[in-house]
Amino acid sequence: MIEIADGVFVRRHTELDLTLGLITGSGDSLLVDSGMDPGLAAVLAGEGLRPSRIVLTHNHFDHVLATEAFLPCEVWAHEDCVVDESLLAGRAEYYDEPFTGTLVAPTHTFRDSVALDVGGRRVDLHHFGPAHTSHDVVVHVPDAGVVFAGDLVEQGAPAQAGPDATPANWRHVLDLLLELDPRIVVPGHGNPVDAAFVRAMAIPEAS
Ligand SMILES: [Zn+2]
C-alpha cells in the first residue's frame, strides 16, 4: 500500500496493472474495488484494517471478484451495476482456470451521488453518466483532493472501450470529474496521475 495523501492509499498489482484504493478514517476504512486477490483481506487485517465498505467502480471482473474475502462489509455500487456470472466471460479471455469463488452483488446502491462517512471523513460517490460502462462510479475524497476514477482513466495503457462503453459521452464525464478539482486522480489501471493528464488523455473509440 502506497500512501498518496493523508490516510489515502493505493495498492498496485502486477496482474493487469490493476490499482485498488483504500481510504481510512478514524477506526474505519473503505476499499475502492475488491480486485482479484482474496489474500488482500488478510494482509489488511494484519494491519488492523477491516474495511466496512467496498465501493465497486464498475462490474468488470478484475475489479469485483475478490469481494467475498472482505465480508462482512457493505458493498456499494451504482444502481445499474449488475454482478452476476455474465462478468466471468471477461475473465475467461485472460484466464484458463475457472473462477471458484462466490460473486457478491452490491448491497447498497445510488443513482447520482451519495455522501458516506468513513470514520468521520467524508467520501462522495458520483455517477456522471455512461462512459467506460453504464454505471461508472467516481470516488472523491474532498479533504485530500483525491479522486478514484475506475477505468474512466488508465495510465500506462490506453483507456478501454468494450461493447458496454459509451465513448461519445466519455469526455463529458471526464469534464465533470475535473470539476471536482482533484490534485490526484487514481486510475483503475496504472499509476496515479494529475488533472492535466486527464484533460489530455485520448478517449477510446467504440469497439
Ligand atoms: Zn473496466
UniProtKB/TrEMBL annotation:
Matches recorded under CDD domains: metallo-hydrolase-like_MBL-fold
Domain Metallo-beta-lactamase: 17-189
SMART domains cross-referenced by the UniProt entry: Lactamase_B
InterPro entries noted in UniProt: Metallo-B-lactamas, NDM-1-like, RibonucZ/Hydroxyglut_hydro
Origin: domain of life: Bacteria
Coiled coil: none
Pfam families (UniProt xref): Lactamase_B
Protein name as annotated: Metallo-beta-lactamase domain-containing protein
Organism: Lentzea guizhouensis
